[in-house]
Amino acid sequence: MVGKPSIVFAHGLWADGSCFGKLIPALQAEGHEVFASQHGLNSLESDVACVNFTINHVPGPVVLVGHSYGGTLITKAGVHDRVGALVYLAALGPDEDETSQQQQNQFARTPVFDHIEVADGRIWLKPSGTGDFCGDLPEAEQKLVLATGAVPVVDLFDQQVPGTAWRTKPSWYVVANQDRTVNPELERFAAKRMGAKTYEIDSSHVPMLSHPDVVLDVIRDAAKYLAA
């Protein structure tokens, strides 16, 4: 394990740590300590806290990887002094004075939001929305994504906590060109604003599931940067 950075993953909405299941075994086999934060999407503060205690649990330095809303989480938690690199996967990356929703509002609304419903104070993805969320996966995998996803509180994207790690730490960004959940133009804007090393792939919102080999290479690049 000497010289191998740890990898910590942060999932987004309608997901849990299993969404990184095609990445974790390969990274473990290469000698990395790997953990996925399991957060409940109950509040931004509690979700960031979950990422932070996961960072505390692994040896440093840490490559912090966030998908979708997980990009907001790594932007906040990434100020942790043991985090050395940030990897964004089709992710949000709000600035200090932005909420997740304010960043989204700057770009056209995506089709997935025609397939949601609010019940019990949570925003649920309808089965009809999996095509816009993960439509380049086989049907069985789409059903698994829907069944295992955590469900956010209604006001999650309007919440704010301090921290903008990408302003001081090196970043990598995977833009999903066929994304129908986070606007690809938002992704390109975020990557450019970060000064991130950017990769564009023809993927739905879940490149770690539909193009795991590409995403693995991006994470490996960030890990090599820390190990150098």
TrEMBL record:
- Superkingdom of source: Bacteria
Q: Could you list the residue ranges forming a coiled coil in this record?
A: none
Q: Which InterPro entries match?
A: AB_hydrolase_1, AB_hydrolase_fold, Sec-Metab_Biosynth_Hydrolase
Task: Tell me where in this chain the AB hydrolase-1 domain is found.
Answer: 7-217
Xref: Pfam families? Abhydrolase_6
Can you provide one Gene Ontology molecular function annotated for this UniProt record? catalytic activity
> This chain belongs to which protein, by name?
Pimeloyl-ACP methyl ester carboxylesterase
